[in-house]
Specification:
Elements lengths: L1 H10 L3 H23 L7 H12 L12 H38 L10 E4 L3 H12 L6 E5 L13 E4 L5 H6 L7 E4 L7 H18 L4 E6 L5 H7 L3 E4 H13 L8 H10 L2 E5 L7 E2 H9 L4 E7 L2 E4 L6 E2 L4 E5 L3
Parallel strand pairs: 1-2, 1-4, 2-3, 4-5, 5-6
Antiparallel strand pairs: 7-12, 8-11, 9-10, 9-12
Helix pairs in contact: 2-3, 2-4, 3-4
């Protein structure tokens, strides 16, 4: 019964561990045997084990050599069994390493880190976010989930890739959603806006169901789906279409010649944004009053986050409370 449990435990071990254990037992056995047969040429058991490993791996230093006929027979058996087993072990290690690398590229491996950021969907916004993290030297672990990619893009850097449907519990488990700190859901540019928003909302529901504590940032394209995204569990909803439409409007109807619109976007991309709490001194003031106060410190107030909604350039008489956050453009 004991031997049955021992063999059962042995065969449940990973193949590399089983092979390493087998090689070690084989070399130890031959080392002890050669020490017993020729104690004058192999003074200690360690010398015998050293000879077994050197001979079995076909290195052959020649510092210990059996001289008796029985010792030479033991050496032949060691070369036939140990040499082949060691070669098979090394080939298995190489094959397992290659398969592991291929699985990582295909997105078939499980992420085991904690307090990481999950990006849902590979697109230009996700690529720029990763580039910004790298540029600002943010040492954050990032997991990318995408169903369309066949392997991890080179532009994604060293982030962990999980291929599959982000609404699937199994795929989210591969991304270790239960230990994630943040999740960023970007809208799918390949879909119609309404369909893209529906997918984002379903993904938000799946994320919230698997981790009630993860901070979810969801991009929504249509205003009608804003409330649904909040009900689904999004902590912050980004309405990217509203922001871009405002920029286009100001570009079309600008009164005087200014820098081209494309140049304006490049400048904004290089600027450092920050999200800060509202101090007691600034609380209960209007957006205009706070904006005038921050100008003296060379900070440009471009919006606020009120009740998990990002408001770019709200009405000047909007009252800002300590529960809100300020979206600032820091000086260059």
């Amino acid at each position: 019964m004991y031997l049955y449990k021992l063999f059962h435990f042995y065969f449940r071990l990973p193949v590399l561990i089983r092979l390493l254990l087998t090689v070690s037992i084989l070399m130890l056995s031959f080392g002890i045997i050669i020490h017993v047969i020729e104690p004058e040429h192999f003074p200690s058991i360690f010398d015998g084990i050293w000879w077994a490993f050197v001979t079995g791996s076909t290195v052959g230093y020649g510092d210990f050599v059996p001289l008796s006929s029985l010792g030479k027979i033991i050496g032949i058996l060691l070369i036939l069994t140990g040499g082949g087993l060691v070669t098979f072990y090394m080939a298995t290690v190489s094959s397992t390493t290659i398969k592991r690398e291929e699985a990582i590229k295909r997105g078939d491996t499980v992420f085991k880190g904690k307090h990481h950021i999950i990006f849902i969907g590979w697109n230009e916004r996700a690529r720029q976010l990763l580039a910004m993290l790298e540029e600002l030297n943010k040492k954050e672990h990032v997991v990318l989930i995408d169903r369309t990619l066949k392997q991890l893009p080179q532009q994604a850097g060293d982030c962990h890739f999980v291929r599959g449907d982000p609404t699937s519990d199994d795929i989210l488990a591969k991304a270790n959603i239960q230990e994630a700190a943040y999740a960023v859901i970007t809208a799918d540019p390949a879909k119609q806006e309404s369909h893209a928003d529906q997918t984002s909302i379903l993904t938000t529901l799946a994320l919230r169901g698997n981790n009630p504590k993860v901070y979810i940032i969801t991009e929504i394209l249509t205003k009608e789906q804003l409330s649904n995204a909040k009900r689904a569990g999004a902590d912050t909803v980004i309405r990217s279409n509203d922001f871009m439409s405002t920029l286009f409007f100001h570009e079309i109807f600008r009164a005087s010649a200014v820098q081209p619109f494309e140049m304006l976007l490049k400048i904004l991309a290089k600027q450092q944004f920050s999200l800060t709490d509202v101090s007691e001194e600034l609380a209960e003031q209007t957006f205009l009053q706070i904006s005038n106060t921050l100008v003296s410190a060379e900070y440009l107030l471009i919006g606020i986050v009120k009740q998990h909604e990002i408001m770019i350039n709200p009405s000047y008489d909007t009252i800002v409370t300590t529960e809100d956050k300020l979206l600032l453009l820091e000086p260059m």
